[in-house]
Amino acid sequence: MTAADNPPESHRREVVSFVRHRARMTPAQQRAWREHGPDHLVEVDKGAGHGAISAGQSVDWSAVFGRRSELVVEIGSGAGDSLVAMAAERPDLDIVAFEVFQPGIAATMIKLNRAGVRNVRLVEGNGVHGLQHLFAPGSLAGIWVFFPDPWPKTRHHKRRLVNPEFAALAASRLRPGGRLLAATDWAPYADRMRRVLDAEPELINEHPDGWAPRPAGRVITRFEGRGERAGHDIRDLSYRRR
Ligand SMILES: C[S@@+](CC[C@H](N)C(=O)[O-])C[C@H]1O[C@@H](n2cnc3c(N)ncnc32)[C@H](O)[C@@H]1O
Fold first, then answer.
1. Which among 51, 69, 111, 121 could disulfide-bond with 84, CB atoms 3.0 to 4.6 Å apart, if both were Cys?
2. 180-199 as b/e, with b when 16 or more CB fall inside 10 Å?
3. Please, which pLDDT band fits residue 4 given cuts at 50, 70 and 90?
4. How much is the pLDDT for 13?
5. Would you please indicate which residues are annotated as catalytic (active-site) residues?
6. How far, in Å, is the centroid of ligand 1 from the Cα of 123?
7. pLDDT tier at 1 (50, 70, 90 boundaries)?
8. Where are the beta strands (DSSP E) in the chain?
9. How high is the pLDDT of residue 34?
10. How far is the CA of 17 from the centre of ligand 1 (A)?
11. Ligand 1 pocket test target in 120, 223, 234 with most atoms within 8 Å of CB
């Protein structure tokens, strides 16, 4: 075996939970990005690789939002439907949403503008890196992961966002009593999330005898609708940091 067969950790290609879509933004999305990007987007230092956010930086979130409020992170906000509705439902929260898909981010900007929602900021990049590098341990009131890509094929399971490392990272970033909310329409992933999150010693399942209720404002998105039409049950999970 040569060194190339077993490269050091830093040279190995990172397994990420998203695919790189080639989709371009529509003209309306491009306009929204140009005109409203500065109001909604937080620019961070990018690392090497699609979506990578580099270590060794910090963001003063109370300066970004212009107030000191409870902070929530959403990972994979998609086109922003549930994000915008949940942010409108909870104007007391400041929400930082990570997404790698530019047209989704632009669509979210348009919805934020229409709804006049001001307590959301968007970061283009990998939310796992974002959690790691942009938030101090114990600083978050919530982490939301709604309909993460299910990666149904066995050979792709390693790409699932919710895995033991993610559970430990999420638990470390939540403050005591902070909540991790997740939802999926893919039953095997729901079961896997539950096993992984139940095994994280810092997290407590708030509904050990069943699934969690749907959170207020979590409207039906395109992904959830598609799952429902395919006959899938929707499963919510809610965990509290010890
Ligand atoms: C199936 S979609 C669901 C979108 C949205 N939450 C909803 O319910 O409609 C999953 C989204 O997560 C994004 N995503 C996956 N992994 C991510 C990561 N590590 N960081 C940021 N976004 C991610 C994908 O680009 C995609 O838009």
1. 111
2. bbbbbbbeebbebbbebbee
3. very low
4. 81
5. 149
6. 13
7. very low
8. 70-75, 93-99, 120-124, 140-146, 174-184, 203-205, 235-241
9. 96
10. 8
11. 223
Q: How many CB atoms lie within 10 A of CB 167?
A: 22
Q: List the binding residues for S-adenosyl-L-methionine.
A: 74, 99, 126, 149
**Sheet with 93-99, side-by-side order of all strands:** 120-124, 93-99, 70-75, 140-146, 174-184, 235-241, 203-205
pLDDT digits (tens, 9 = 90+) for 27-55: 999 999 999 999 999 999 999 999 999 99
Domains and CATH numbers, the chain: 126-242 (3.40.50.150)
Provide residues with CB under 6 Å of ligand 1.
Answer: 17-18, 75-78, 81-82, 98-101, 104, 126-128, 146-149, 161, 221-224
Tens-place pLDDT, residues 89-128: 999 999 999 999 999 999 999 999 999 999 999 999 999 9
In Å, how far are 3, 91, 181, 186, 208 from 214, measured between CA atoms?
50, 19, 10, 16, 15
What are the pLDDT digits (tens) for 199-223?
A: 999 999 999 999 999 999 999 999 9
Residue-wise pLDDT tens digits, 182-202: 999 999 999 999 999 999 999
Which atom number of ligand 1 is nearest to the Cα of residue 16? 19
**CB within 8 A of 6, min separation 6: which ones?**
none
Annotated binding residues for substrate, as ranges?
A: 153, 185, 221-224
Please tell me the residue having the least CA distance from ligand 1 atom 13: 76
